Amino acid sequence: MALALVSLNAASIAAEEGPGQSLRIIVPLSAGSAFDILARAMGNAFKERTQQPVIVENRPGGNMGIAANACKSAPPDGSTICLLTQNAITLNPLLYAKL
């Protein structure tokens, strides 16, 4: 259900941005992981639906903090999807002073 909602939302964002706007999916684990496979399946569905490029960016390490920082630094234009667990968002700020 969540995957469908994310895909639909991303498709509507891409339609608003026009052709050439690529979607970036940030994955907190290495290539070949379950998150990576999910991101690539989402990316393929998005690309088929919108004919726009999709970039799957693997950012492993730091208890998912590296990917969380990349998401935090992404431009707020709706072209980035972050696949994070709630640990990366809720627990990491409590455990680590600098993220």
UniProtKB/TrEMBL annotation:
Gene3D superfamilies, alphabetized: Bordetella uptake gene, domain 1 (3.40.190.150)
Pfam families (alphabetical): TctC
InterPro entries to which the protein is assigned, alphabetical: BUG, Bug_dom1
Protein name: Tripartite tricarboxylate transporter substrate binding protein
Species in which this protein is naturally found: marine sediment metagenome
